[in-house]
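Budget justification, computational time. The allocation requested in the original proposal was used primarily to generate structure tokens for proteins on the priority list. As evidence of use, we reproduce two of the resulting records. The first is shown immediately below.
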Amino acid sequence: MSFAQSWDFTPGARVVVDDLRKCSREYEWLEEPYVSPDGETVAMVAALPDAEFSLAVNGEVWEETFDKIWYPRFSPDGRLTALVQSAGEWTMAVDGAAWEEQYGYIWNTLFSEAGDVIAAPVQIDGRYGMVANGTVWETLFENANMVALSRDGSASAAVVQVKSLAQADIETFQNGIFSVAVNGVAWDSIFVNCWNPAFDAAGKRVAATVRRTLYDYTIAVDGKAWEGAYACAWGPVFNPATGQVAAPVRKAGAWGMAIDDKMVWEPRFAQVWHPAFSADGSKLAAIVAPSFGVFTVAVDGTPWDATFPVVTDLAISPAGGRVAAIGNDQNTNFTVICDGKVWSGQYDMAWPLVWSADGAHLAVAVERAGRFTVVCDGKAYPQSFDKCFDPAFSPDGTKVLIRAIADGKLHRIVAPLTAFTG
């Protein structure tokens, strides 16, 4: 049973914390709130006297204190993590207990899909790599960036620098100094640049965008580059059903889509990026620009009619292969496009889209005129709040969990679909 299936989805509203400023210890200030996925917990960094920091969780401060603390995040299984520093060294704290291992720096917390693996890039004595559940790569590198974690957390990857580079050493750079490391083992292949490593569904294979020369871009899979050369390429994705690799590529002055080095969308777009497959691998969608400065979504190479100056947050349903995204007019008038149709509401801001498990319903947290609420299938919840977090659907898709802050209180609302009337 997943963590979400154990949540309380009994319809109704209740106040989880009635005063967010209450704290079990004297404090100088509290930072912004982070609410757990199930809406039962709110965490805030608490600045304590004597320049100490900790986390206040539903008002109760962790016993352990630190010199610095930042990036609090809840794992998919509900644990609370934060990056903490003591005596000049950094580590990960989980539910108030810091890992024994310490690092020169740690950042960008990652989680496995189930939440049982917590990972992050680290720096130790000027060398870089990854740590997962407290275990660091055996081999560290001069540089490691663009990190990725497999769905099950069994493997981590990063773009790594495998050759040293002196100042102004252009020749060495152009001969290649970067590769991709998986669990600390770098590919034998070396490239001028590498970007966006991505795992397949099983966490066994890795693909990345690479540059073989200053003008030759392609995709490498498990270290082997495609033979095709392209003027540019964006991050690849694996088909979860077939294991094939798709990537947007630029050829003959326009963008298209290649799968396993064969063009499947003819290069006719001004831009193609953020590709995503449906769960069964039968559909491939991406954000595209049919012409310069005009964006929409294309599904299997066919663009939608609705266009916007900006399109972001492409989301494919877990079942059914439905596709949605957010369009806006250069950071104003945000709206949702679902299966090519535009919702009627416009907002000052909209956050990432959330599908129900069966793909029948779509929800999003939005802001309008400084107030926040949740919109489901184009209809807004009638109550607005001071702050709203990403919604969540019940496993059967009939109810929506709303996590919100209003009047200094944390509210937890389970609303049936019929409650959305706006």
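The second record produced under the same allocation is shown here.
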Amino acid sequence: MTTLKNIAIAPALTAVGSFADAAEPTTPTTQVLHRTVKIDGLDIFYREAGPKDAPTVLLLHGFPTSSHMFRNLIPALADKHHVVAPDYPGFGSSSAPSVNDFDYTFDNLANVIEKFTETLGLEKYSIYLMDYGAPVGFRLAVRHPERVQSLIVQNGNAYDDGIDNDFWEPIKEYWKDRSKENGDGLRSFLTLDATKWQFTHGVRNVETISPDTWGHVQPLLDRPGNQEIQLALFFSYGSNPPLYPQWQEYLRKHQPPTLIAWGKNDAIFPAAGAHPYKRDLKNVDFHLLDTGHFALEEDDAVIASLIRGFLGKQLTE
């Protein structure tokens, strides 16, 4: 009987030990905090992790997601970096005033994020630029080059190269003629099928992409009034290409160390948009990844490793 008891107890003790190990709290440096700050009367939600005296990485998300796209990257960097990822107005858990109450332009998004960084006391930072994050981040960099320690570019354009494909044709028509008809033609970009396509097109294995992605994004897109917000930003995106020469001049003049980790199968910002950075930058760490638009969904570990190596080298030299 004693032997049987011991045999029965041993696995139980092992199980208890396993549960105890699994239940150990996340270390303070990598624990992700979910916070909100007031900027010009708006609630700006952000995720934050890592020691505040460590080098800061500012993560700027793309369309149609939010800081949620960085949910795995943040803890992967936070042991050695102070990581901050805000949601723009109209996205994620930030305020989403109507288009009548807030001017949804990229200039205005950049204004909000600039004030956000100042409110949080972020004096110097590296910027992760992805999709919409590129026009927001480059505006910040041009305004305050002294604050930018390095750039991490993931499927975010600063050149005309790559935005001449079929995807952009109806959007460019909207830039030329902001008619109701042209706007209504873009509403198909805001459907569940379109959102799924953004997450799954060009990936190696669609089974690695969690439905939690579009499960998070689509209900936010479907909020009353949010389509009008997105249409306003589709139109405002037309303000970005005329600024490309200014952004390129910033790169040539200030030569920020830059890591490019680009999903090469992206149909929105294809690899053609990645190569021109090498024309203007002397210090560029260049990687094309065999994945799609939201490269972090399939290659988060790869990108985290690239960032850690890149920042470890650049910020200690």
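A brief technical remark on that second record: The radius of gyration is 21 Å.
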